[in-house]
Structure formats: structure tokens, C-alpha cells
Write a structure and sequence with these properties.
Layout (H helix, E strand, L loop, with lengths): L3 E4 L4 E4 L8 E5 L10 H19 L4 E5 L6 H10 L3 H18 L15 H13 L3 E4 L2 E4 L15 H6 L15 E6 L14 E3 L1 H13 L3 E7 L3 H16 L4 E7 L2 E3 L2 E2 L10 H7 L2 H8 L8 E2 L2 H21 L15 H18 L4 H21 L5 H18 L10 H24 L3 H13 L2 E6 L2 E6 L2
Parallel strand pairs: 3-4, 3-9, 9-10, 11-13
Antiparallel strand pairs: 1-2, 5-6, 6-7, 7-8, 11-12, 14-15
The structure holds adenosine monophosphate and zinc ion.
Length: 475
């Protein structure tokens, strides 16, 4: 069975087949940097991180782009309240976002484009739409002509009349149609602005994402991620702009993440009911917060409350106690042993259940279930004190750390941190040992000695034993 993703565009579970098998492209709508991020934003960012980690685990190369909206009304207003420039406020909060993401063990995206650094791309996209008569200019602002895009409403599943009735459309007398939205806003006095063919102004939010996504990922990308609130109008408008400009499908799979709620209401800045991620991280370990945020499938709402966090805290302790007890068996595999003990079988079951869960639209809740079932079995095994245990326990340790690494619920070392470097180093040394072994079997002693001596200079000592060569780091 291959991977399946629930595509919010088709409202169906679909087989995941990347456009380019060499590289899966993902765009995730990042934060508007007018404040620190809250736990709701963190849920969306974390799910994106896990989608990326899991695709890599399944052998894909991924290019992830996550933007920063660093110019918009909220930034301008907040900066004015604080008496600083919009640029300075966005810069401070952008840095805080990276700091908080890193504390949550989120790997940095491959590109973090900023809206203000892509103004020429936005202008050129708007120009294309004007040339195609899909946009019109009024008093220095440019509007998208919604009735030119026959498929408008396909993502949010809204018909034109629904769009007119209940939609959050801006009232603007100058628009031809109330559904039309601005892609370029004429400058207002005192606001940051950029020169354009229509006079000074600044981009609208939707054009920012279309331009940044296509600049870094091409006209068609594989997976577009964002919170549920962005489905309409933001993502609907991103599709309308991009597809009318290029004639290509903009995003092939749309992933919308359900809300993190608090007291049954969406956690949000405007609701004044938010918990900042950095405050939560001051109170709970990273792994506990990660466990909590992925304890429900991403398409289900999740409620923030102390009891749930305490449950995640308990789960993390059970997991780390088990892995700490298993650590000493690490590497004690026995080759050639083909008998399958019940625990070995449980290890294999856990891995296949983990993959089946994650393959089915990234079901982290079920994946965690598989991990914790194995933890209970290992604990029973450890207390039974079976003398034949070590190789089996080494397998359990390996399987648990590998799957926990995908979810980041045990070892949250940063991508470029020591963990990956050490693993990489070990692979390289083992490769050299293999080459040396080949040389020795050809009686090419010069090459064999050269490898040993050069490694020695790097403080890596090889010992030839009857079972083959081993190595250790010497100081
Ligand atoms: P914003 O800074 O409001 O533009 O939001 C940044 C990202 O967080 C977007 O993808 C939002 O959809 C997402 N988001 C905001 N609030 C929540 C929430 N309560 N639960 C889940 N995701 C959210
Ligand atoms: Zn966006």
C-alpha cells in the first residue's frame, strides 16, 4: 500500500503520487509576524514538520517552503501602537518565530521567503493578470475579477450566491463585484509602500503566497498546507490568481489542519484566548508539547487543556523510561538468528502499524498508539528478565527510536545538530571499513594500511578481530 492524502480540494482520500518523483514540493502558509506565535499556529507548523519528516522517512526528497507574511494591516497597526516601524516589528517577530519553532524541534524549511522580498514577483504576477483581463485598476489599487475564473469556489465548495451572501467579502463601492479582492492596495499616507506601475502601494495577502509559492516551487506544487481558517478566502484566492496566470493546476493536494481550540473556541489572536508557544515551552518539555499537538489526527479539532497536557507528560515519561532502559542494548544485534520471538513479532507489527497509520493521511494518533503498545510489551519483557533478550531488545530500541524520530516525540535534536552528524560520521567510517575489507581480500595491504593510518590521524582506531574490523574514537 502506498501513501494516501486527504485532498481538501476533492474531499477524498487520494493516492499520493508526486509530480516529480525526485522531489516533493510543499508550500505552507506561515505566520503573519505581528506577534509571537500561539499554540494554534504551532499545531499547523508542527503538522507541516511531521508531513515533511514522514515523506523523507518514506524515501522522498522534499523541498519545503514556508513564508513569512511581513507586511499587512495587523503589522502596520501594531507597529504604530508600539511606536516602531513595521519593518522592525516584523523582523523581531520573525526572529522570535524561528526561535520558537526551533525550541519545538521543528526543522527549518528549505526556504523561508518574506513577502517584502518578493514585491517584483508579485507585481509581475498582477501584470500578467491585468494583461489577461482578469484584473482591473481603480485609483492605484488592483482587483481580481472573480467572475473570470469559472472554477472560483472549488476549494471551499461555495457557489457564487453563497459567496455573495455570508462571505467575508470586503465592502468596497469601487469593486465591480463584491467577491473581487485586492491584489495591490494603493498607498495610504504614513504606511510602508513600494513603487509599482499603478503608483505606490503594497501587495494584498493572497498574491503574496501565490507569488512566493510559484517563485520557489514552480507553477504546480505537490502539497499546499495551512490551517482550516485559510481555506476561504485565502487559498481560494491563491488558486484563482495562480491558475488564471499560468493555466496550470496550482497545488495538487490541499491539506487543511483543524483548529486547536480552547474552551471549545478556536484559539486565535483576535479571540484573546491564546497561549503563546513560548510560554507553553517554559512549562512543559518540547516532546510533551509535540505529543499533545499530534495526539489527535490533524483533521480533528484538538482542545487545549491541562489534563491533556498532563496525559502527554505521562506518556512522554513512559516512553523515555522505556527507551532509557533499552539504550544499553543498542547495537547488540545477532546476525543469522532467524527465529522470531513474540517480542520480535511485536516489533515488526509496530513498524507496519506505524507505516500504515502514517501512510493513511498522516494519522499521528494511530501511529502513537502503535508505539505505545510496543512500549507496554517491552516493559513486560524487561520485567520478565529473559536472558536471551539483548538482540531482541536492540531491535525494539532501534524500531522505537526510528519511529519516534519521525514524530519528534523522543529525540528532538535539530536536523543539523550532533545527532545527525554522528549518524552520518558512523556511516562514513563503516563505508571506509568495508572498502578496507575489500582491499584486504585482494591482499592490497597498502590500501588497507593507508585507510587504517589515515583514520588513526583522525583519532579513529581500527581493531582487527576474528569477527571483522571494529573501530572506536580515541582521544
Ligand atoms: P496567522 O499568523 O494567523 O496567519 O496563522 C499562521 C498559521 O497558523 C496559518 O496556517 C493558520 O491557519 C494557522 N492557525 C491559526 N490559528 C490556528 C488554530 N487555532 N489552530 C490551528 N491552526 C491555526
Ligand atoms: Zn498563504
Amino acid at each position: 500500500m502506498g501513501m494516501k492524502i486527504y485532498n481538501s480540494l476533492s474531499r477524498q482520500l487520494e493516492d499520493f503520487v508526486p509530480l516529480n518523483p525526485e522531489q516533493v514540493s510543499i508550500y505552507s502558509c506561515g505566520p503573519t509576524v505581528y506577534d509571537y506565535i500561539h499554540m494554534g499556529n504551532a499545531r499547523t507548523a508542527l503538522v507541516t514538520d511531521i508531513i515533511r519528516r514522514y515523506l523523507e522517512y518514506r524515501g522522498h526528497t522534499v523541498k519545503l517552503v514556508q513564508n513569512l507574511t511581513d507586511i499587512d494591516d495587523k503589522i502596520i497597526n501594531r507597529a504604530a501602537e508600539l511606536g516602531i516601524s513595521a519593518k522592525q516589528l516584523a523582523m523581531q517577530n520573525g526572529e522570535a518565530f524561528f526561535e520558537d519553532s526551533q525550541r519545538l524541534g521543528i526543522y527549518p524549511a528549505d526556504v523561508h521567503p518574506k513577502a517584502t522580498e518578493h514585491i517584483p514577483e508579485m507585481i509581475s504576477l498582477i501584470q500578467t493578470l491585468i494583461e489577461k483581463d482578469v484584473a482591473y485598476v481603480i485609483d492605484g489599487s488592483v482587483y481580481y475579477r472573480v467572475n473570470r475564473f469559472a472554477e472560483y469556489g472549488k476549494l471551499s465548495n461555495r457557489k457564487p450566491e453563497d459567496l455573495l451572501a455570508g462571505a467575508r467579502v470586503e465592502i468596497d463601492e469601487r469593486k465591480e463585484d463584491p467577491r473581487d479582492f485586492d491584489m495591490w492596495k494603493a498607498a495610504k499616507p504614513g504606511e510602508p509602500s513600494w513603487q509599482s506601475p499603478w503608483g505606490k502601494g503594497r501587495p494584498g495577502w493572497h498574491i503574496e503566497c501565490s507569488a512566493m509559492a510559484m517563485k520557489h516551487l514552480g507553477t504546480t506544487l505537490d502539497i499546499h498546507v495551512g490551517g482550516e481558517d485559510l481555506r476561504f478566502p485565502h487559498h481560494e484566492n491563491e488558486i484563482a490568481q495562480s491558475e488564471m496566470a499560468t493555466g496550470c493546476t496550482f497545488a495538487r493536494y490541499w491539506v487543511h489542519i483543524a483548529f486547536l481550540n480552547i474552551d471549545g473556541r478556536r484559539m486565535g489572536k483576535s479571540e484573546q484566548n491564546f497561549i503563546l508557544l513560548r510560554d507553553a515551552l517554559d512549562n512543559y518539555p518540547t516532546e510533551v508539547i509535540r505529543h499533545f499537538l499530534i495526539s489527535a489526527h490533524y483533521r480533528h479539532p484538538l482542545d487545549y487543556n491541562r489534563e491533556s497536557l498532563m496525559k502527554s507528560d505521562g506518556a512522554f515519561r513512559r516512553l523515555s523510561n522505556c527507551l532509557d532502559a533499552l539504550k544499553k542494548y543498542d547495537g547488540q544485534f545477532e546476525e543469522g538468528d532467524t527465529t522470531i520471538s513474540p517480542l520480535q513479532q511485536a516489533v515488526q507489527e509496530m513498524k507496519s502499524q506505524f507505516i500504515a497509520a502514517m501512510d493513511t493521511d498522516f494519522n499521528t494518533a494511530q501511529a502513537l498508539g502503535a508505539i505505545f503498545t510496543l512500549v507496554s510489551k517491552v516493559n513486560r519483557y524487561l520485567s520478565a528478565d529473559d536472558e536471551n533478550a539483548p538482540p531482541v531488545l536492540a531491535q525494539a530500541y532501534h524500531a522505537l527510536t526510528e519511529t519516534c524520530q519521525v514524530l519528534g516525540v523522543y529525540d528532538t535534536q535539530a536536523r543539523d545538530g550532533d545527532g545527525d552528524n554522528v549518524e552520518h560520521r558512523d556511516h562514513l567510517i563503516n563505508l571506509l571499513l568495508e572498502i578496507r575489507q575489500d582491499a584486504r581480500s585482494r591482499k592490497d595491504w597498502d590500501t588497507s594500511d593507508k585507510i587504517r593510518d589515515r583514520l588513526k590521524q583522525l583519532n579513529i582506531e581500527i581493531q582487527d578481530t576474528r569477527e571483522g574490523a571494529t573501530w572506536k574514537i580515541v582521544s
